[in-house]
Amino acid sequence: MTAQLIDGNALAKKIRAEVAERAAALTARGKQPGLAVILVGDDPASQVYVKHKVNDCETSGVRSVLDKYEATLSEAALLARIEELNNDPTIHGILVQMPLPRHIDPQKVIETISPLKDVDGFHVQSAGALMVGRAGFLPCTPYGCMKLIETTGLSLKGKNAVVIGRSNTVGKPMAMLLLQANATVTICHSNTADIGQYTRQADVVVAAVGRRNVLRADMVKPGAVVIDVGMNRNDEGKLCGDVDFAGVSEVAGWITPVPGGVGPMTRAMLLVNTIEAAERAASGAV
Ligand SMILES: Nc1nc(=O)c2c([nH]1)NC[C@@H]1CN(c3ccc(C(=O)N[C@@H](CCC(=O)O)C(=O)O)cc3)C=[N+]21
Hints:
- The model has no long low-confidence stretch (mean pLDDT 97).
- The strands form three sheets. Strands 1-11-8-7-5-6 form a six-stranded parallel beta sheet.
- It has ten helices and eleven strands.
- Strand 5 (160-164), helix 7 (171-180) and strand 6 (184-188) form a beta-alpha-beta unit.
- The chain folds into two domains: 30-114, 3-Layer(aba) Sandwich (Rossmann fold); 140-263, Rossmann fold (3-Layer(aba) Sandwich), CATH 3.40.50.
- It is an alpha/beta fold.
- The chain has helices at 8-28, 44-60, 75-86, 106-112, 124-132, 140-150, 171-180, 195-199, 245-248, 262-282; strands at 4-5, 34-40, 63-69, 93-96, 160-164, 184-188, 204-207, 225-228, 232-233, 239-240, 254-255.
- It is globular and about 50 Å long.
- It binds 5,10-Methenyltetrahydrofolate.
- 5,10-Methenyltetrahydrofolate (GUE) binds at residues 48-49, 52, 95-98, 120, 140, 231, 239, 258-260, 263-264, 266-267.
- Its EC number is 1.5.1.5, 3.5.4.9.
- One of its GO terms (cellular component) is cytosol.
């Protein structure tokens, strides 16, 4: 292994400590930050993630409210609960865990969350703010990826960055953040003829597809920064990313592991957004 490991667990821990200080300051003024997490159905992966998020809140002094519903919950009932949380002054962030059962329209759910409490950064208003460079909540995963890239000390200005994947939650906002940092950005996706042709020119590659071995050693420029957003299981049921870690780490300059890379940072940035929302509310800015 020649690449240096980017330690997402360590950075997330540091960020949680900073969040804890800001949370304590708010709590001392009687304004403890609060995050509502809504889980619908019993998807096992979602259960694990949500438990992590609630634990993170506890260690950072953020109050969390966990609403668990049966998979049969009606869309109308979910929207009504969100409205209630929108109007609850003790709640500063609202997260509805995805995926939702098929009879519930996720876009409708997201648009019902007040943009002031949209700590996932999934609302069209948040997406629009990012697009035009205005203040708004950044989606947690791309936000965390930018923090991970920062730790390498690489300046993105004038560099080539390739994002593999074009989801609304990761790929698209990731490309926008890299563009804002003055990188030259390429988005590759399922219709891209030869992804390696692009990634071989890239100083930074962010892989966010959701499939194993999307990025292999022969596709990477020596010394490149490689950020692995993937969260997959291999044949042995072990958690693995989109990057062939063993191969790519012989070529890259920096690489994030899975687990212990982007995942913990996604959760850390959720706390940052929640604190940000609570501070804005406390300052009467909203
Ligand atoms: N409204 C909403 N917001 C989300 O942010 C959201 C979502 N829905 N639905 C599901 C995805 C997935 N996601 C993860 C976050 C952290 C880890 C994470 O912390 N992973 C650990 C390992 C966890 C394990 O052991 O399973 C790691 O990479 O080290 C994983 C996955 C957030 N998501």
